[in-house]
Amino acid sequence: MTDLSVATLAGHLPDKRQVAVSFSRAAASYDSVAELQRDVGQALLARLPADLAPQRWLDLGSGTGYFSRALAQQFPHSEGLALDIAQGMLAFARPFGGAQHFIAGDAESLPLQSESCELIFSSLALQWCSDFERVLSEAHRVLKPGGILAFASLCVGTLSELRDSWRAVDGQVHVNRFRELGTYQQLCADSPLRVLNVQSQPHVLYYAQLRQLTHELKSLGAHNLNPGRPAGLTGRARLQALVSAYEHYRQPKGLPATYQVVYGILEKT
Questions:
Q1: Distance (Å, rounded) from C-alpha 178 to C-alpha 13?
Q2: Which of 71, 72, 103, 213 would staple 83 via disulfide (CB 3.0–4.6 Å)?
Q3: How far apart are CA 92 and CA 154, in angstroms?
Q4: pLDDT over threshold 60, residue 30
């Protein structure tokens, strides 16, 4: 995973049509392996301002609706909108409720009226957006004055153990690329929103065997979606070499997989 500037990163992020298809296919298996997603989303909920009482909230990149339902519990007298680019996720989530409206849409071009929400909540979705400046601009447009954008995303350093293990095997890109923390901070500072907090925190998961991690990534729909990723099946010898390289990271708890999570709380003044 190379460090990429804002100008060059867009060409190295996955095509969002592929992202939508991948996550749609993963809808039924997603929640069974979404420990990180639940932990990060709960941490983001805990970062919301204590006095926040939105009349209408938007779960941006709502996925299976897990946090749409959590938001509905936290704000029981509010109207909820669940928006996702993956139709399969929306179809899966709709029967479980939480939100009153389920909307197919893109964070970079929200199909919502201006000044229509008091809260935009987005957990582990915005890393797939190539134009984060546009995401912030759209959030500013859709939020009412005093409204809050709360997001959790991924930055450089995510899955570094897997990236470096693959690098030792063949030097090719097998791990999704993400922005640097400093890029998130700069884009937020340059946006029309007031930055209350933007910081990163590592989340580390542990696995007995590497195949458990790779199976989880596939079940989440978050396996390698990079442009220029290696085509075709991975041979047994290369997989064995990968397992051997990853074993160098083993700890008493197991094989670590580190996710560098960016948490941001911004306000429309």
A1: 8
A2: 103
A3: 24
A4: no
Question: What is the reported pTM?
Answer: 0.85
241 Cβ contact list (under 8 Å, min separation 6): 168, 169
On whether residue 236 sits in a domain, the answer given is yes
CB 20 within 8 A of CB 87: yes
| Sole residue written with tokens 């919301």 | 48
Question: Does residue 1 belong to any structural domain of this protein?
Answer: no
| Segments in the chain forming alpha helices (H) | 6-9, 16-25, 27-30, 35-46, 66-74, 87-93, 132-142, 160-169, 181-190, 210-220, 236-246
pLDDT of 180-229, one tens digit each?
Answer: 999 999 999 999 999 999 999 999 999 999 999 988 887 765 544 444 44
Whether residue 142 lies inside any domain: the answer is: yes
Domain count, the chain: 1
Would you give the DSSP letter of residue 108? T
Strand partners, 83: 60, 103
141's enclosing H/E stretch is helix 132-142
Q: Which helix or strand (DSSP H or E) is residue 203 part of?
A: strand 194-207
CB 57 within 8 Å of CB 120? yes
Supply the CATH number for residue 61's domain: 3.40.50.150
The pLDDT tens digits of the residues spanning 135-184 come to: 999 999 999 999 999 999 999 999 999 999 999 998 887 888 899 999 99
Three-state DSSP at 115 gives coil
